[in-house]
Specification:
Number of strands of chain A: 8
Helix content of chain A: 40-55%
Largest sheet of chain A: 6 strands, antiparallel
CATH topology of the largest domain in chain A: Beta-Lactamase
Shape of chain A: globular
Number of domains of chain A: 2
Oligomer: homodimer
Structural class of chain A: alpha+beta
DNA sequence: CATTTGGTTTCCGCCCAGTGGAAGACAGTA
DNA sequence: TACTGTCTTCCACTGGGCGGAAACCAAATG
């Protein structure tokens, strides 16, 4: 029965996107079979769609026959939120040069922080986040500072969920977390100590845009320097103010391609 | 006649990708009608596909109802060539800090240079290139240096095409360009003087990988400093060597999602 | 308030692009 | 040679995609 056993209600578009997203979970290049499994599609269907995506440059095929996301996709995606990234990057770089520590800029995407910029030196640091990566908000300094200054309903909605325990030090008690956020709002910055990953701590300040919280700007340091983190506060606040000044003229809607719900 | 006048042979996939690519040409957010025009699709078809793309986060809709590329796309695309970018970025940053000039890293994509990294300060420079952007190879220093060290057949293929004249100073004579490339290969670096854009000049050195040319590393400066460009050569060569060392262990095929033809 | 203008959303029956099981080709490996 | 895992091609069936048309909506205009 050719074509009989098809899964109804599944659009072609959803299949194409599922194929692309299959590359997100597993690092490195995938074989056709991997893609078929990852996207939950029959092999022959996968084969056809993958071939077309490759023609368009959205996937590329290495010498070994395995596939990976193509440069065309990356090229296209550079247009997303370019204004914000272009405007903010030099300042994040300043932050890095002035402190010598890994500097990062993140925004809220749903219930997570999404890292959109990250400047680091050649020295090795235990890294949990990466550009384009997500982390739970309550475990990171940037996340906490965003949450603290976010609108009331966002905060309560967040605290009414199960809070993931990333390390033994992650704060997951909703009540105490609410208090911590209150305190962050008062003091104007947030910190974490080995809450995402053992061996590293972080500090972050808010970046506002048109009165609302727009992003979080932070530093990641080795745990050893956790005690003296706050000495970076003046620089952090200064750079944050500069980013705010550099982005005021950018209309909110073109800042990022995020569907605010 | 519903569904009668359809354009045959056009796959759904191609329509979806055409919609995404429609955002590349025109800056800023697009209305549904704009997208339909840009992708050459009927309005109702566009509407259906755009709606699904939006659901998946590949497009986002602003308060005004216009569409732009979604953060989901950007997020996915960060996985493309991450190894190369992550490894190279700190060194490009060094190049910037050491020289104070806009530093950039580019690779060849077909007959053009594709800028994959670009570090610049807050001072304004006339910029022609941008991360994710392309330029003709013969008009840029990074492009020329890549072309010069590229395999013979690539070079001859390139010179047998029409060479675009970007500014009055662009070298477009194939014969003379071949000589220039020869000289670049001997001296180990390439320069341009207002060949892409009036007011700026550039200098670049090759970055090799497994014996082949892998990328071009360069600086962009204001034309005024064109005469003394070569004083940056030692730094450029040093940083290039460091990038080579940092990327030797990366398998060629996972460097970038480029289909080498 | 009626009208025009410029855009977005919904509708619906036709029909071909998409489908996926199966078989064939291919490359390692035992 | 047989086996195994993977990729590629084939092909007849069929429902998801299609897109013209009409309804809808909002803002500008008379």
């Amino acid at each position: 029965m050719a074509g009989g056993n098809r899964e109804p209600g599944r659009t072609v578009t959803s299949k194409v996107l599922a194929i692309l997203e299959a590359f997100e979970q597993s690092r490195g290049a995938l074989s056709l079979t991997d893609i078929a499994e990852g996207s939950g599609l029959p092999l022959s269907t996968t084969h056809r769609l993958v071939a077309e995506l490759t023609d368009w440059g959205f996937l590329s095929r290495s010498a070994t026959g395995r596939y990976q996301l193509g440069i065309r996709l990356w090229e296209l995606a550079q247009n997303t939120g370019r204004q914000l990234r272009d405007a903010a990057r030099p300042f994040v770089q300043d932050l890095f040069s002035l402190t010598g520590e890994t500097a990062q800029l993140a925004v809220r995407a749903g219930h997570e922080v999404l890292y959109i910029e990250r400047i680091y030196g050649t020295k090795r640091v235990p890294r949990a986040s990466r550009v384009g990566g997500r982390l739970p908000m309550h475990a990171t300094a940037v996340g906490k500072v965003i949450l603290a200054f976010e609108e009331e309903w966002v905060r309560t909605a967040y605290l009414n969920r199960d809070l993931e325990q990333t390390t033994p030090h992650t704060h997951t008690n909703p009540r105490r977390l609410a208090e911590e956020l209150e305190q962050i709002r008062e003091q104007g910055y947030a910190t974490t100590l080995e809450e995402v990953r053992l061996g590293s701590c972080s500090i972050a300040v808010p970046v506002f845009h048109t009165g609302r919280i727009g992003a979080g700007l932070g530093l990641v340091l080795a745990s050893a320097q956790g005690a003296s983190m706050t000495r970076h506060l003046p620089v952090l606040l200064g750079v944050s103010a500069q980013i705010e000044r550099a982005t005021v003229h950018i209309p909110l809607e073109s800042l990022l391609g995020i569907n605010r719900r």
